Amino acid sequence: MAYFIGIDTSTTATKPLLMDENGQVLYGAALLAVAGSGVFRSVESTCDATITITGNISPGTDQSVYDQLYPLYRELYPALRPTFTAVGRERQ
Description:
- Helices cover 67% and strands 8% of the residues.
- It has helices at residues 2-12, 24-37, 43-50, 63-91; strands at 17-19, 53-56.
- Strands 1-2 form a two-stranded antiparallel ribbon.
- Helix 2 (24-37) crosses helix 3.
- The protein is elongated.
- The relative contact order is 0.15.
């Protein structure tokens, strides 16, 4: 999983934090419910009180390559959109 998070950090230039809980999506939904119930004053205070950070993942060493190629991708995507649509129709 860390590999895929590493790819995401390279594409978004973010540093996700790792937490010690399994089922993070369900845990996140429960935290929002607790915050909404008024037990804590905010989502941030709910997270501060309940989440233990166990580490983080930094962007990979290839960040500069991504930064260089991303504008090219942004140009190509609109040009290839009709092709993507045609491929999608063929798969149906």
